[in-house]
Design a protein that fits this description.
mainly beta, 5-stranded antiparallel sheet, 2 helices, flat
């Protein structure tokens, strides 16, 4: 294909053993069938005029890398013919890559390339203006090598590159290099054109992390002059560089020059301040600073940048900043600055002091200068540098007296300026010493903290004074031993210094804990909590005056859970001083209590803030379940103080759960609960004797009780009912007379005196049995239908009926009443109803009716099918409404089984009679396609749906007269829609079976043909052969028996359908009695009783008389001609639907053992019954347009042929072309028509044309050819 006929070109290669690829002179390259290509006679002269000697030399010169060549052919696309260039390399064994003088590089077919005669070896200049070496002089000392910087000093290589510089990237052969020029071009050069430049001074060996500059252009991308860092090596020597612009690229080693390494800044380590100096790590962090938080592997650090970002960096991107004067390790009291934002809260930039360390990683808690306090990640915190101790720049001031050494907490004045910052004249307090030389850190009175040279600081100690003189103005005189008082938790203190930021000086409070070995946390009297340096805190004398509101304290009681306490201090924040409450628990080992205040709040207090109140008198009685109590405390939240209730249980060893009289249930601390004195009389007035009896009567199932307490929520107090069961060892479930059922705490329930055993009526109006009479014969049992005949059980159920669902104890049943209620009844209230007649045992698939109401849901009277058993006896039923529910066995009555309709089997017609299977298919019909398990079928419904059904949903329909097994020629109806195409309802005939499952191909009466699933196809019943209802017509002569293909007339009416008088052809016999199936001339097919059919055979005639009018006389042996593929046939019958009678065509294949598929001359293809087809004589007349044929040539690939038949669809008869290949073993050819089309043809449609004269010469590479055919696409014929 392609329309190349007539084009000319050159063979470039063979795509297989004989078919060539041709480079056409128009530049196109295409693969052609050998038969399309004719060799042109070889010309003796080369296409390009050259001197004969030179041409001969060129011809004998083998191509080699670096050789000057001319493009003399057009086999290679691109229009390069006539250009000159140099061979740079070979792309395969013989085809070169050529660098043309215009700078382009392309791969050429060897046949397109002609070597130019080599010029005498050109001189090799070393540089412009340098004298040439004399002949025979030694070679330049520096051999060329990959990566070497070179200058192009000659013009042997085309392209005008002389004077350019670049780098050798590889050698295209043993000596000629390929050079990447500094202008970005790459070209292959003759060795003689290239001069090595002197090597630059030896650079440092490249390594990962090294800073480099891109000094060459060997690597594409225009990166020359850029700098970056090596991230890795892509092979043994070529690095990948992360440029400072953020790009990453792989470079030739020769393009990369190492930059001198910056002075070592020290090995990276955790916590080190660093600067991001590279961009290997994405994110644009170059130039940022931060601190190393950890190492993600052996050398690459994670850095917390000063903007708060945390990122992992390549080691080479990170440069350590020179360490400032030794940063002091973080410690309590140290001045710090928040430099990161890892810790939420927006603290970056704040300063403060470390008060304590919150964990083992030394993450500090910092008290900011604004008074706030927060725990921070160590990495967010930078210690402010301590001043070093250089030689002092100025004469030292007079030294302080030896007896007044500087010490932590001492008041000092800054008297010198050796320490920068202009602090001279300021005063403050020493917070710590920053080094061994005792250079102090001073908290100045302006709130700032700085490290000072010792010489700049003078102690402000006042002259020794009597102990009664306070060291700090404004403070009360210290007790004689105040200085030696050891601080302790709970101690009252005064803040006397300002080392701790926040402006707390002068405040008082209590120590709540120690944040480290010596520095306390103080709860100030204003409610704030802060950590203080020990030097800021002075202990107050421990003589506490009890609060005025308290009565003289009893001897101090030890704190314990439940103890009543008063809050006497304010160490605990919240302003609770003076409040009272109860201890609920201890929050730690130091016995700091949690107190439930009388206001309802719960808070944890420092032990020193809490004073035990004298214990109240012991309660009247120990707490116990059922006891009436009053809530006297507020330790338990909820505001229940003053309420009363009953204890229902104990939630642990001592704390009770109380049911309050308002219906609420809550767990209370034991100390909140006070037992009320027990009353001697029961809450409900009852006769004393009855009360005593009730008291001594243990609760039991069926017992009448009264709800006398409110421990159980719901407001049931005063109601009466019956115990139905016990929810645990002692607490009963009670069915109240109002119909409600609830579980009660035993303490809420009081037994009512049992009435004398009531009579047990059997039914209304039936006399009671005399005393001592035998028990009713039927013992009560689960599932039994009963009537409520008594009123011992409250609720007014007398006269109702229901079913026993269980026994709440040994004898009293729980009954599900027909009105849907469930209640527990005294056995005496319940009478068994006579059992209904014995029903069939329940089983899966059984039709049942719901006859009871034991199962909730109001299903009584519904019907359905049992799908399974949820336990040993209770079934799950699929109701006819589509619902599925589990039922008590007693609610279900089996329905009599329908008459057996036969075992289900594949292909059986069925009706969906149940709704166990979801989908609403009840009432639909269909056919069983398969069984999904041992008994449940898959059914193809008549609406086309396929679903799996429970066996019980499916009822077999009575079988109609025996359906004939599907077979070729059978009349069928399409009854399903499993096969796509919308064929349901159509009728037709089976033409063949398409697979082993007997899925048929059906020719429909409308002429269409389709393959269908077997399940979609229903055989139309064949007429039986009953005793004939009418006298038989005169029998046909003995010598004219009925046979397939015979023309017949319907002469009787024994076969239903009203076909009498119609004519047609016998297609097959439907049974052994030779009752035929006839294809009527109206297109319909039906099975007939043999007696209804008369053969229309004409009297015997001479062989020359045609049996079918209009046809040419058959040859004497035509009747016996065996049909075969390729045979010309005529359609003489109408058994096959479609109205093809009278058409002619060719047999293309057999769809089964005898029925052929025929390609009609109108282009249609159809499968026909053998009886519809008559072979035509095989004397083919050659097409008129052809000359008398030579002896018939065997078809072969490349043979010129004419299409002489129409068996192959497409209307190609009369066209010519060439055989390209054979598509199958029968030698049916694929033909490339002269129109450019390619099609597969039946062998019988194709006639070989006489072969053209043998081409002048065998085809070979480089040969001039003309495209004389169009087998190859592209329209190249004639080129």
């Amino acid at each position: 294909p392609g329309g190349h006929k007539g084009k000319k070109g050159q063979i470039t290669r063979f795509v297989d053993a004989e078919n060539p690829e041709v480079r056409l002179d128009d530049g196109n390259v295409a693969s052609f069938y050998k038969v399309d290509v004719q060799a042109l006679p070889e010309v003796s002269a080369a296409p390009t005029p050259m001197p004969t000697v030179a041409a001969q030399a060129a011809k004998s010169t083998a191509l080699k890398v670096g050789q000057r060549v001319e493009i003399v052919g057009s086999l290679t696309p691109g229009g390069h013919k006539g250009k000159k260039g140099t061979v740079t390399r070979f792309v395969d064994a013989e085809n070169p890559e050529v660098r043309m003088d215009d700078g382009l590089t392309a791969s050429f077919y060897k046949a397109d390339v002609q070597a130019l005669p080599e010029a005498p070896a050109p001189p090799t200049p070393t540089a412009p203006g340098v004298p040439l070496p004399p002949p025979g002089a030694a070679k330049p000392p520096a051999a060329l090598q990959v990566g070497q910087r070179v200058e192009i000093v000659g013009s042997l290589t085309p392209g005008g590159h002389k004077g350019k510089k670049g780098q050798i990237i590889r050698f295209v052969d043993a000596e000629n290099p390929e050079v990447r020029l500094d202008d970005g071009l790459t070209a292959s050069f003759y060795k003689a054109d290239v001069q090595a430049l002197p090597e630059a001074p030896k650079t440092v060996a490249l390594k990962v992390g090294q800073r480099v500059e891109i000094v060459g252009t060997l690597t594409p991308g225009g990166h020359k002059g850029k700098k970056g860092e090596i991230t890795r090596f892509v092979d043994a020597e070529n690095p990948e560089v992360r440029l400072d612009s953020g790009q990453t690229a792989s470079f030739y080693k020769a393009d990369v020059r190492s930059l001198p390494e910056a002075p070592k800044s020290g090995a990276l380590k955790e916590g080190q301040r660093v600067e991001i100096v590279g961009s290997l790590t994405p994110g644009g962090h170059k130039g940022k600073r931060g601190q190393i938080t950890r190492f993600v592997d052996a050398e690459n650090p994670e850095v917390r940048l000063d903007d708060g970002t945390i990122a992992s960096f390549y080691k080479v991107d990170v440069q350590a900043l020179p360490e400032v004067a030794k940063v002091v390790e973080l410690k309590v009291g140290q001045r710090v600055e928040i430099i990161g934002s890892m810790t939420p809260g927006g603290h970056k930039g704040k300063k403060g002091q470390i008060t304590r360390f919150v964990d083992a990683d030394n993450n500090p808690e910092v008290r900011f200068d604004d008074g706030q306090m927060a725990s921070l990640y160590k990495i967010d915190v930078k210690a402010l540098p301590e001043a070093p101790t250089p030689p002092l720049p100025a004469p030292l001031p007079p030294a302080a007296p030896k007896d007044t050494p500087l010490k932590i907490g001492q008041r000092v004045e800054i008297i010198g300026s050796a320490t920068p910052g202009g602090h001279k004249g300021k005063k403050g307090e020493i917070t710590r010493f920053v080094d061994a030389s005792q250079n102090p850190e001073v908290r100045l009175d302006d709130g700032r903290t700085a490290s000072f040279y010792k010489a700049d600081v003078r102690a402000l100690d006042a002259p020794a004074a009597p102990p009664s003189v306070p060291p700090t103005p404004g403070l009360a005189p210290l007790p004689p031993d105040a200085k030696s008082t050891v601080l302790k938790v709970g101690q009252r203190v005064e803040i006397i210094g300002s080392v701790t930021p926040g402006g707390h000086k002068g405040k008082k409070g209590q120590i709540t804990r120690f944040v480290d070995a010596e520095n306390p946390e103080v709860r100030l009297d204003d409610g704030q909590s802060a950590s203080f340096y020990k030097v800021d805190v002075r202990a107050l004398p421990e003589t506490l005056t009890p609060p005025a509101a308290l009565a003289p304290a009893a001897p101090k009681a030890a704190l314990k859970v439940g103890a009543r306490v008063e809050i006497i201090g304010s160490m605990t924040p919240g302003g609770h001083k003076g409040k009272r409450g109860q201890v609920t628990r201890f929050v730690d080992a130091a016995e700091n209590p949690e107190v439930k205040l009388d206001t309802g709040q719960v808070a944890s207090f420092y032990k020193s803030d809490v004073q035990a109140l004298p214990e109240a008198p012991t309660p009247v009685a120990a707490l116990k379940i059922g006891q009436r109590v009053e809530i006297v405390g507020s330790l338990t939240p909820g505001g229940h103080k003053g309420k009363k209730g009953q204890i229902t249980r104990f939630v642990d060893a001592e704390n009770p759960e109380v049911r309050l009289d308002d219906g609420n249930v809550a767990s209370f601390y034991k100390v909140d609960v006070q037992a009320l004195p027990e009353v001697s009389a029961a809450p409900t007035p009852m006769p004393t004797v009855a009360a005593q009896a009730a008291k001594s009567t243990a609760l039991k199932v069926g017992q009448r009780v009264e709800i006398v307490g409110s421990l159980t929520p719901g407001g049931h107090k005063g109601k009466k009912g019956t115990v139905t069961r016990f929810v645990d060892a002692e607490n009963p479930e009670v069915r109240m007379d109002d119909g409600l059922t609830a579980s009660f705490y035993k303490a809420d329930v009081q037994a009512l005196p049992e009435a004398p055993a009531p009579p047990t009526p059997t039914a209304p109006g039936v006399p009671l049995p005399p005393p001592g009479a035998a028990k009713p014969p039927a013992a009560l049992q689960v599932g039994q239908r009963v009537e409520i005949v008594g009123s011992l059980t409250p609720g007014g159920h007398k006269g109702k009926k229901g079913q026993i669902i269980r026994f709440v104890d040994a004898e009293n049943p729980e009954v599900r009443l027909d009105d849907g209620l469930t209640a527990s009844f005294y056995k005496a209230d319940v009478q068994a109803l006579p059992e209904a007649p014995k029903t069939v045992a329940l089983k899966v698939g059984q039709r049942v009716e719901i006859v009871g109401t034991l199962t909730p849901g109001g299903h009584k009277g519904k019907k359905g099918e049992i799908t399974r058993f949820v336990d040993a006896e209770n079934p799950e039923v699929r109701l006819d409404s589509g619902q599925t529910a589990s039922f008590y066995k007693a609610d279900v009555r089996s329905l009599p089984e329908a008459p057996k309709s036969g075992a289900l089997k594949e292909g059986q017609r069925v009706e969906i009679v149940g709704s166990l299977t979801p989908g609403g298919h009840k009432g639909k019909r269909g056919q069983i396609t398969r069984f999904v398990d041992a008994e449940n079928p898959e059914v193809r419904l008549d609406d086309g749906t396929i679903a799996s059904f429970y066996k019980v949903d499916v009822q077999a329909l009575p079988e109609v007269a025996k359906v004939v097994e599907l077979k070729v020629g059978q009349r069928v109806e399409i009854i399903g829609s499993m096969t796509p195409g919308g064929h349901k309802g159509k009728k037709g005939q089976i033409t063949r079976f398409v697979d082993a499952d007997n899925n048929p191909e059906v020719r429909f009466d409308d002429g269409q043909m389709a393959s269908l699933y077997k399940i979609d196809v229903k055989a139309l019943p064949e007429a039986p052969t009953p005793p004939l209802p009418a006298p038989l017509p005169p029998a046909a002569p003995k010598d004219t028996p009925l046979k397939i293909g015979q023309r017949v007339e319907i002469i009787g009416s024994a076969t239903p359908g009203g076909h009498k008088g119609k004519k047609g052809e016998i297609t097959r016999f439907v049974d052994a009695s030779q009752n035929p199936e006839v294809r009527l001339d109206d297109g319909r097919t039906a099975s007939f009783y043999k007696a209804d059919v008369r053969a229309l055979d004409a009297p015997a005639a001479p062989p020359s008389v045609p049996p079918t009018p209009g046809l040419a006389p058959l040859p004497p042996d035509a009747k016996s001609t065996v049909l075969k593929v390729g045979q010309r046939v005529e359609i003489i019958g109408s058994v096959t639907p479609g109205g093809h009678k009278g058409k002619k065509g060719q047999i293309t294949r057999f769809v089964d053992a005898e029925n052929p598929e025929v390609r009609l001359d109108d282009g249609q293809s159809a499968s026909f019954y053998k009886v519809d087809v008559r072979a035509l004589p095989e004397t083919l007349t050659p097409p008129a347009a052809l000359a008398p044929a030579a002896p018939k040539a065997a078809l072969k690939v490349g043979a010129r042929v004419e299409i002489i038949g129409s068996m192959t669809p497409g209307g190609h008869k009369g066209k010519r072309g060439q055989v390209t290949r054979f598509v199958d073993a029968a030698e049916n050819p694929e033909v490339k028509l002269d129109t450019g089309q390619v099609a597969s043809f039946y062998k019988s449609d194709v006639q070989a044309l006489p072969e053209a004269p043998t081409p002048v010469a065998a085809l070979k590479i480089g040969q001039r050819v003309e495209i004389v055919g169009s087998l190859t696409p592209g329209g190249h014929k004639g080129k």
